[in-house]
User: Fold these one by one.
Assistant:
Number 1:
Amino acid sequence: MQSLPLSLRTYGDGARDQLPLLLIHGLFGAASNWRGIARRFAGQRRVLVPDLRNHGESPWDGRMDYPAMAGDLVALLDAQGIERAHLVGHSMGGKVAMWLALTEPQRVASLVVADMAPLTYEGHFGGLIAALLALPLAQLRDRQDADARLGQAIGSSAVRGYLLQNLVQDAQGHWRWRMNLPVIAGSMDVILGFPDAGGHQFPGPTLFLYGGRSNYLTSEALPRIRALFPLARLRSIPEAGHWVYTDQPEPFSAAVAGFLKD
């Protein structure tokens, strides 16, 4: 399997006795989503925030599955000369982090999974992706025009804002998506699922942080979590939805900091 050289943002130099922290964004996201959280930890350790394949400024590829995405992160750690790191992954990025921990446990000092479980989820992105693919990029006047057009299919202004961070202009002023929408659309069954762990476990410290207002992590996930991550702890962040680290950044950061300290 050939890895891709991921676009990377780094924060802080980090203390010599502190392992780096790797922050992994979710579906339709980018490294910029983690800016505030990364800055909170940059004073204590080096923080690495990549764009996953087919997202942000990273290369595009026809393969979009968890072994490939985790392989990209292993190659990134190798390129940075990092043997072990702490991982924090949100949503799809949480699944990438879980797969990396299960298959390369020697590279993972600890694991934090934000509002995600190692399960298959029901698909509810079909209409959303269709709306993005149908947006007439050549006709757009500006970002506000794009938002108004998407508003007919995507009612939440917060969701539209999250998605529209991926709408950029090239040097000639033409609008384009910086995420590989066709490949993402064709890979949704894989993204919503989780690979068979084949008997692997991650024996290291693991924390599942979930939003108190989210339904992504429910009691039905507990047996699977315990089977794969025997040292897992679970903690709710009250008043947070699925985007737990943006809804409640201070409690989220405090929970991660306390976990890393332990």
Number 2:
Amino acid sequence: MKNTKFNIDNIPVILFGESTEKVYLFIHGKNGCKESAADFAEIAVKKGWAVLSVDLPEHGERKQQKELCTPWVVVPEFKTVMSFAKKRWQKVAIRADSIGAWFCMLSFAADNIENCLFVSPVIDMERLIGNMMMWASVSEERLKFEKEIETDFGETLSWEYLDFVRKHPIDKWNAPTEILYAEKDTLIERDTVDKFVKQFGCKLTVAKNGEHWFGTPEQLETLARWTEALV
């Protein structure tokens, strides 16, 4: 399968596939990279799609760059990528993992998206941050005072980030959306997903024995079947 690496502004991307009129933007999750799109691209390219995958800040080729993976950095970058895609392809769709889905909803709510595939999406970021604060026994008052707090589980709690999340709720999402949710997801509660599905008219598939990150052979087979049926 043909793939080409290049930059959109300073954003490293990889394009899978040949010349076509439609493209999927692939957005990886935490600790992923643009090459994470390869398995998805194997399916999508055979069905006539190109796949354009980007490195989030602090990921892939960007680990040494100064940009941080925060929404106020990512959203303007995503808008740049979307502008590039619209000029080159007639139809633009999205495939996103975990926090990548949340970044997409922040960035593309006003865009005409052909269809959207979310895997283990972070839907309610404020609730997730609240859970992490609880796990770390950090009060809101302490976070507001200290601004940033490192946790034992590798996440940095940030008052600025929480403040941004509260000021930018996901209250609009019109793209036809399919969600693959893992039955044993310990990060995203099922009731949060059900509420989002009902609010925005999405379709939900629950992967039995699945976890937030699809990694076992059984989980990857479930993901592949879901993708094959929907792309």
Number 3:
Amino acid sequence: MDVTPQLRNEYRQRFRTAEVNANRKALVAGVVDSLVAKKARYERVGDPLDIPWWFVAVIHDLEASRNFNAHLHNGDPLTHRTVHVPKNRPPGNPPFTFEESARDALTLDGLAHKDDWSISRALFRFERFNGFGYRTASINIPSPYLWSFSQHYRKGKFASDGNFDRNLVSQQCGAGVLLRVMVDKGIVTPMSAAAAVG
């Protein structure tokens, strides 16, 4: 799957209109502050790969709850190779540092050395990192990985066993919502100003 004009327009429209749910604003602000506080560490991961620090930070929140003792791939402990998908990462002998494991996760997902970090492209890459399962005809809901804690998402989530539950509600803030708050606060300036507004 690649970014089509239709998909790009969907991302832009949802991003432009995304608003944090009132009962989640304080929580989201706290998450954003926590990510910004570790900006230098995220830069150490992303800079050698030409990946913006904020992309690494948001993935870290969603995949490992900002735990620097966990793999960016999926939150498994750094004391061993990953057990969950993707399994047996990174190559080498444990224990791993957060930085080496995170670079492996980002490289494995094909994110290294890309030159387009516009909003629509970043949202596509966030969604691809998690998977496009929410787009299947039988589910067809906005991905909570992107839009949880905003008006674009209400309920429906893949459970830990991999089965989709229409009544399960994500308890994590979506990547698109975190990025929206970062842009609104002036923390992140998108690569293309037009991508943020157009």
Number 4:
Amino acid sequence: MKYAIFSWFGYFMPFEERIQLIKDAGFDEVMISWEDEFAPTYIHKETFPDIVRNAGLEITNFHAPYRGYNDIWEKTFKENAVSFSEFVTMIEDCRRFNVDTLVVHTNDLNLSETFKYENGLAFFSGLAEAAERCSVNLAVENVSRQYLLRYVLDRIKTPHFGMCYDTSHDFIQLNARGQIIHDYYDRVKALHISDNDLLTDRHWIPTEGKIPFEKIMPMIKKTPMKVLSGEIIANEKWRQKKPSEFLKQSLIKLKEIDQLR
């Protein structure tokens, strides 16, 4: 396995400095939120790939920013035309910058009970078609309502359409906890590895919480993934220490759970 972490990991500093720290810590790749940064310095997202690659890192995937995901289910495909176009542009950006995967969400937390399955299916079917045209993986993340992800995975079976498996999201849901990766391990296109207390999405370093990685890692090993990527963010305790220490410990623990069979 190779190892990756998000470009944002909890310390407030310029993008270039974070990338260099990630490289110095020993990571192979980095995941990028595909949106401009405004603080502490402004930087246009189109400059990210060169900064990352010039530092000697590869790009695991782009992560789409917030785009009103509930609208996908609550409004018709026609009403979502602007949002749809924005997502297609992000898929095309992946092709343009030689990044093979775009990660998106299914919904936000406050989804109305009046949503319609056919709205979501039309939207994601259109994105799946765009992903096939661009030969880019579209990885839909398991967020709060996994039944929506299951719904689209069961109905859209094109080669580049699949799942981003997030361990933390999975294990704060009492009736989930490993089942979705068991059922769709062959559809995994991206990974978000982190730990929590089984209550909230903490983004802790693996083994600092209660997620049973000895249960999950054998399933992750069955997926097509060759990069173990952490969506790990320093908490208040870690922010009292140097970011280099946090990154080194994150990599140590990713390598540790990678040895689980």
